[in-house]
UniProtKB/TrEMBL annotation:
This is Abasic site processing protein. Pfam families: SRAP. Residues 199-224 are annotated as: Disordered. Belongs to the SOS response-associated peptidase family. Its EC number is 3.4.-.-. The keyword Cell inner membrane does not apply. Keywords: Covalent protein-DNA linkage, DNA damage, DNA-binding, Hydrolase, Lyase, Protease. It is an enzyme of class 3 (hydrolase). GO terms for biological process: protein-DNA covalent cross-linking repair; proteolysis. Signal peptide: none annotated.
Length: 224
């Protein structure tokens, strides 16, 4: 489950990847360490056919059967949009894209030295170019934090799919759905569901790298 990502982009990269959003992309500034329930920039469709950039809190409503109290911490990653809970947000008016430059997953085995699971960062290449997660959004009323009390806020989550060969050794269950081109983004935001759902697939193996140094590389560096 991806619960941490980075936005380290610039305005020119935003304009190139999201040309149909015009000058609103100038309002996206670098944002390191986006965690669940943090506000983050999202490019979304609206019911009237327009689109906008907004800062939404990360975490869609939890299915009721999994809630034990009134506090709903939210669901950050969505896999099965066919389920009765998630299919409400299949429509164009509740789709969005989430700008990002890298995302992270914890490794499976603790580091022998630190006894902690290592955090792996993934990107399209070492330069960490901009991409987008395929997401959904909604307006929600409820309690996210007990101290905060009831709120009405716009929230989002992004889709996941089966992992490719780069992510699978680190996180064997899933990886985020990544959109890399204006055409893929336009399909997700505007196409009928039967076409848009085809975007929910893993990124080809050669198109993603693990930025985390391997243990072998770490050991070699320690010799010098």
């Amino acid at each position: 489950m991806c619960n941490l990502y980075n936005i380290t982009t610039n305005h020119e990269a935003m304009r190139r990847l999201f040309p149909k959003f015009g000058d609103v992309t100038n309002r996206v500034d670098p944002q390191l360490d986006v965690y669940p329930d943090y506000p983050a920039p999202v490019l979304r469709n609206l019911a009237d056919g327009e689109h906008e950039l907004a800062h939404l809190r990360w975490g869609m409503p939890t299915p009721r059967e999994f809630l034990k109290t009134e506090v709903d911490k939210g669901v950050t990653n969505v896999r099965n949009l066919k389920s009765s809970h998630w299919r409400h947000w299949q429509g164009v008016e509740t789709r969005c894209v989430v700008p990002a430059n890298s995302f992270s997953e914890y490794g499976q085995e603790p580091d022998p030295k630190t006894k902690r699971k290592p955090l792996h960062w993934f990107a399209l290449n070492e330069e960490k170019p901009l991409f987008a997660f395929a997401g959904i959004w909604t307006t929600w009323k409820g309690v996210r934090k007990k101290k905060e009390g009831p709120v009405e806020v716009d929230i989002f989550a992004f889709l996941t799919t089966e992992p490719n060969a780069v992510v699978k050794p680190v996180h064997p269950k899933a990886m985020p759905v990544i959109l890399r081109t204006t055409e893929e983004i336009d399909t997700w935001l505007r196409a009928p569901w039967d076409e848009a759902k085809e975007m929910q697939k893993p990124l080809p193996d050669p198109d993603l790298i693990d930025l985390t140094p391997s243990n072998d590389n770490e050991e070699q560096r320690s010799l010098f």
